[in-house]
Every structure is written in C-alpha cells, then in structure tokens.
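seq/struct pair 1
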Amino acid sequence: MDPVSNSTSPRKRVLSGMRPTGKLHLGNYMGALHNWVRLQDEYECYFFIADLHALTTDYADPSGIAPNTREVALDFLAAGLDPQKCTVFVQSHVKPHYELPLLLGMITPLGWLERVPSYKEMQENLASKDLTNYGFLGYPVLMASDILLYQADFVPVGQDQQAHVELTREIARRFNQFYKKQPAEEEILPEPQVLLTPSPRLPGTDGRKMSKSYGNTILLSDPEAEIRAKLKPMVTDPARIRRKDPGNPDKCPVGDLHKIFSSQETLAKVYEGCTTAGIGCIECKTWVADAIVAHLAPIQERREHFEQKPALVTEILAAGDERARTRAGQTMQEVRAAMGLAQFTPGDVAQ
C-alpha cells in the first residue's frame, strides 16, 4: 500500500537527503535519521539518497556510488523509515533532478555560489581532490533544486546548516520575481522554511566529531564485539590520568555518549562514580557500550531482514522513485511553462 497521495494529503511537506558514502554511523543517525523517523508520522516526507551529489566530489572514481547507495538504503529502512509513511528514493532515478538545476542555473548569480560557506571549506578539507569543476561550484543549485522540485514546506536541518536553506530561499525568490503566475495564484516555487531538529553532540572514538574522514565512527551495522572494541580505547576526561583521579562527565566524550544513549539511572551512576573516582574509565565505557548495543539491536535486526530480501529493497526504491517522479514532474510542468519552454507532444512534432 502506497503512502497517502500527495494531491490529497493535508500535511505539510518535508524533504531531506543524504549522500551515499557507505554504511551510516551513529553520527548520521542522531544527526538526521533519528529525526526523520519521527517526522514521517507528522509530515508528508520525501527522503532521498543523493547519488548525484556524490559525483560533485567523487567524479574521478564513481565506483563506490552504486554499492554505497544500496548500503544507505538498507540503513534508512533499518533505522525505521517506513515506505508506507514516507517516500524513499534515489536522486538520479528521478530525471527532473537533472533538469531543474540547469534551469535554475540560468538565474543564479555566480557570486551567490562563491560565497557559500562550505565551498572553500570543502576545498580545504578535500585538498587531495581537484574541485575546480563546474559541478562542485554549482552544487548549491543542485541542492536547491532537490528541495524546490517537491515544493517542500520544510527542510529539517541542524543549527549549522541553515545557510544552505537560505540560499535555496533566495533562488526561489529570484525565480518567482522573474516568472510570476497570475496574481491570484500561488508562487511556483514556494520558499522552504527551516525545520530545526535536535542534533546532540556525538563524539567519535577520538573525541572529535564523529566522521568517516576521521576514522572514528561506530557504524549502525557494527556487531557488538566491534562496538566494544572501538569504545575500549576511546579518549576520556584528560583530568583522569590515574584511576584514583576524579573526573567530570561533562568534559568527557564518553560522558557525551552516556547522555544520548544511557538511561537516567545509569547516567546518575556515571556522575557519582566519575566525580568521586568510584569507578574507572573502563567500567564507564562498558556501561555506554551496553547502552549503544541495546539501542542498535532493533535497527540491526531490521537491517538483517532487508539484507535477506534484496528484491524487496529494490521494489521499495522503485515505488519511491515513481512517486518522486510524479511529484517532481508536476513542478517541472509549471516551471517549463513559466520559463516559456513550449510543451510539445509527439503529434505536434510530426506536424
């Protein structure tokens, strides 16, 4: 059974996506997926795997994009995205994702793209790659098109990602200034609003932000033994040099994990034991490992279910692709007409 039809649903529309960089980790989960699962019960949601985005930086070696797309799809479903409640699809399978960026690129000033905060930041972080390409510079237009294609009301982001949505709003505003519908009608590309979602600080095993580029992640699919092995050498409060030294969970990456995954009872034990040197860091890490393993158990169970049914995953994505194509196609009809692009039928061409 498909989700409620877009044309009849009274709910506000939400869109978000994630690049396919391989199996997802706890940072991806707490930063986005955990919130997406909640949002699908409140909004008409479209969640996509942004494989075209991956080409902006991995164009020289795209061999990992297809297998990584499959891994991300498995993690989406394992985390709890329900194809009966939301639309899950692959970006490149929906052709309007190729078309709208070209059309919006016609009206987007070059200066807008060059001032995007992540433009220079990513060039510095990925210094080993040549990012002096048109696709990378135009990435914000591709991102804006992803949102505007579905005439989304909201884009769920963290506090540090609001600038990306603001650029989308500016592009939509400029489009609507150039290409107005009848005065009484709504704008073709409504300006999306930011939907701020909670995104707790999730440190990696080295204390820095959890990131694949740092090699400090815990994957959603990691088996229990691997989770415990990764947490065992995790950095802790630098004040606890010796076992007898008291510490402070608020200054400890392990304490940050406890705040997210442990029960209030366990958290109380952590504060009492750490601040009085009543427990050692190894014991504290064991408790947080217990909590993470328990949290991931149902996710990993669902992942195993879908791993054993690859045809079902293909079917789910195909259905999501089709729903996305239908919705995006409606927007493109309006955009083409507004920009003066004639709509031809095969009969027209024959004549």
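seq/struct pair 2
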Amino acid sequence: MMFFRKKKTKLANSNSNIAITNYLTDGLLVFNSENKLTLLNPRAEMLFEVLEGRVLGKSILELARFERLSPLVSLLGGEIKPMEKTELQIKENLILEITSTPIARDGERINTLIVTHDITREKLSDKMKTEFVTLAAHQLRTPTSGIKWSLGGVLDGSYGELNESQKEILTKAYKTNDKVIELVRDLLDVAQIEEGKYLRNLVLTSIEDVIKTVLESRKQEIMNKKLNVEFQREDVQKIMLDIEKMEIVFKNILDNAIRYTSIGGKIIITLNRKEKEREVEIHIKDNGIGIPEYEQDRVFTKFFRGSNVMRIDTEGTGLGLYISRNIIEAHGGRVWFESKEKQGTTVHVTIPIKERFGEFLTGKFY
C-alpha cells in the first residue's frame, strides 16, 4: 500500500511540473540524453509555430525540417552545445534569446534544457532609441558647427575689435559650444557602436605615431599642470588600425590621466610587443585620484563617472571609456585597468598584430 501511495505522489508532482511549464512566458524545450525532444511547452509551440504532437520524439537534427525550428537547430548543433543568452533571429519580427543548459546526474547528461526568451520588443526599442540619438545628434551637429565658426570669427577680430569683457564672455561661449560638439560626437560614436558599424578605414600604420599625435594635441594641458609624462617604447611593427578611432581611444584615456592627476604629477606610457601572443601592449599609468573599488566594475559602462571625479569635475559625458572599449574590441583587442583610490590608475590595452585587411574580415568591420 505504501508503495502505491509513493508512486501516486510522484506522478502527481510530475503532472504538476508539466502544468507549470504550460504557464511559463518563455518557450521551453527539453531534449533527452539521445538528443530527442521530450517536452515542448505551449509558449514554444507558439514561438516556433509547431504542434507538440508533430515534433515530440524527434531528434534535434530531424527538427531542422521545420522552418521555424531550423535556425535553432543551426545554432545548437547536432550535439546541442551549451550557451547562455545568445541572440537568434527567427524571422524579421521575432528575435529570441537562447539559453541551453545540460542537466547531469552522476556526471552524465540526462537532459538538456532550452529556454527561449522573446526579446523582439526590447531590440526594437533599442533600435528606435539609437535611431533617435543618431537623428538628434546629426541635427545638432550643423548648428553647433555654425556657432563655432561664427564665434571664432568674432573672437579673431574679423568683425571688429572686442574689449576684454566681450572677449571673456565670447571665449566662455566658444568653450561651452565646443563641449556640446564633443557630446554630439560622442553620441554619434555610441550610435555607430550600437548599430555595429564602427571601423571604417583600416590602414597599416604605426601605433607609436598615433600615441605621439595624441600627446602632441594635449601638450598645452600637460604643460599647464606641469606633469611629467614619459613615453617608453620598443620598436613595434606597423599594424592594421583605424587611425581616427584609435586616436579617440588614447585621447579618452590620456584625458582622464591628465585631468585627474594633480599638478606636478606623473604619467608613464609604455609600448611593447608581446611576441608569443602576437600583439602590442600599451600601459598608461598615472598617480592621480584613482577609482573607488566599489565602482570599478562600472568603469566601461555608458555614462559612468566616478563619485570622487564628480566632486572635483562636474563636466563630462561619461561615454569616453565605453567608446574606447568598443573601439579596442572591434580591433580584436582588450582593455582593463588597475586602480587604487588616491594612488592612481594603470590602463592596459592590447591590440593584435594584424598586417592585412583580410585578417579583419571576421571582425566588426563595415
């Protein structure tokens, strides 16, 4: 009697679990150890436009015959590889986020759980936001450029002499307008990143020359703060870079080092080649204010500015390092940092040595 009661309870729990899957808002597929489909909940039926009765018991490869399931089969492969939150476009107006998790017992896989989450609305919303930012930035670029040109003409005396008070006011207006132009440029860069269209003009060039160009452009700020800047470098061969974008990287990193290092401080830039990894490595070290430890995981996110930075400098978009990280990664490189508050920060950048355009064909080049 006890035996049958236990069996009944187990069956009831099993039916209860199946009932629960019927109410999930995510699509759910379960494959057994032989990669045959054993469960397909109603949400998955709707997303893939298939009936449970037509697909249960079929292998993952057999499911490729169904039009909507074919992209999923291609993504997972015949062995159903594990993956986490991988985007998959099923059709023009349906984008799913796929998570594949093996379920093991005693070290052996007994099932594989596939969760499909519909992110179409989020992706459409992101696209609309990006398009709005692009449109707004383009609309702002023309008038701000016109203001810059007009103020420049007035300040250089093209329209008559100015007294000191007038010059001071117009100079402030000119600098403020320049900050708006910089924000517009950053917003356009962010929009291009999010559209996946970023590297445009890859050429074989010297990364040393790129860094020297940025240092020269920041010469006045360095002199004003009486900073000791050292550039230590090894001979490094030319590599494929988008020069304009890579200048943005080092401008953003160096601007932070210059801005947040005290008068008379020190910045050391090191460039060397890592022969084994076939990459060049750049280190930019300062002895500035550093980054609070509890904020360090947000440094490369959009609009981040450190709390200690905000206390001494209220201006800035918080987009520079986000943009820089994306440029570096688009080149196939990496960026990370080490920092201690009140002791300084060291930013590390690696760029792979690529000498031919063809080596970028699998990367983010548009």
